[in-house]
């Protein structure tokens, strides 16, 4: 069902200092930068081989990532698995009794389709499933 880790999401207060760290000190290459208004974030994808780190900065305090930062501070936010058929995956996860944050796929970064699984169903790890735009 899950073909590989798509990305690791990291919550940051500000993108520029985070980019100095990831793009500078850690020498990762920026692959994409986008405001995802629906999720209340500006996101940057950095290449790590075929996978990515996704830096997430909130557009305001009153967003999911803004509230996460207020509660827990910056750091690891979610793990994202890649799938080829997000609708079938959502159905299979629902049948397995997993609690979803998103019952339907929504638009994510770079035109992907995404859905989040509630951390209560995944042992405390906020989990995202991603169907990249290329395999629509
Ligand atoms: Zn993500």
Description of the molecule:
With 136 residues, the chain is an alpha+beta fold. The chain has one domain (4-135): 2,3-Dihydroxybiphenyl 1,2-Dioxygenase, domain 1, CATH 3.10.180. 22% of the residues lie in helices and 38% in strands. It has three helices and eight strands; from the N terminus they run E-H-E-E-E-H-E-H-E-E-E. The chain has helices at residues 15-25, 64-72, 86-95, and strands spanning 4-11, 29-36, 41-48, 51-58, 75-82, 106-107, 113-117, 127-131. It has an eight-stranded mixed β-sheet. The longest helix has 11 residues, at 15-25. It is globular, with a radius of gyration of 14 Å. The protein binds zinc ion. Residues 7, 9, 54, 78, 80, 128 line the site of zinc ion (ZN).
Short description:
22% of the residues lie in helices and 38% in strands. The chain has 136 residues and is α+β, with helices and mostly antiparallel strands.
Q: How are the elements arranged and paired?
A:
Elements: E1 4-11, H1 15-25, E2 29-36, E3 41-48, E4 51-58, H2 64-72, E5 75-82, H3 86-95, E6 106-107, E7 113-117, E8 127-131
Parallel strand pairs: 1-4, 5-8
Antiparallel strand pairs: 1-5, 2-3, 3-4, 6-7, 7-8
Bound molecules: zinc ion (ZN).
Residues 7, 9, 54, 78, 80, 128 line the site of zinc ion (ZN).
Indicate the structural class: alpha+beta
**Order of strands across the main sheet:** 2-3-4-1-5-8-7-6
Binned, the helix content reads: 10-25%
Task: Give the names of the bound compounds.
Answer: zinc ion
Q: What is the total tally of β strands?
A: 8
Oligomeric organization of the protein chains: single chain
How many helices? 3
Largest sheet: 8 strands, mixed
- Proportion of strand residues: 35-45%
CATH first level: which class?
Answer: Alpha Beta
Total of domains: 1
Average pLDDT, all residues: 95
CATH third-level topology: 2,3-Dihydroxybiphenyl 1,2-Dioxygenase, domain 1
Order of helices and strands: EHEEEHEHEEE
CATH homologous superfamily designation: 2,3-Dihydroxybiphenyl 1,2-Dioxygenase, domain 1
Q: So what's the overall shape?
A: globular
Distance between the termini: 16 Å
CATH architecture: Roll
Low-confidence stretches: none
Over all CA atoms, what is the radius of gyration? 14 Å
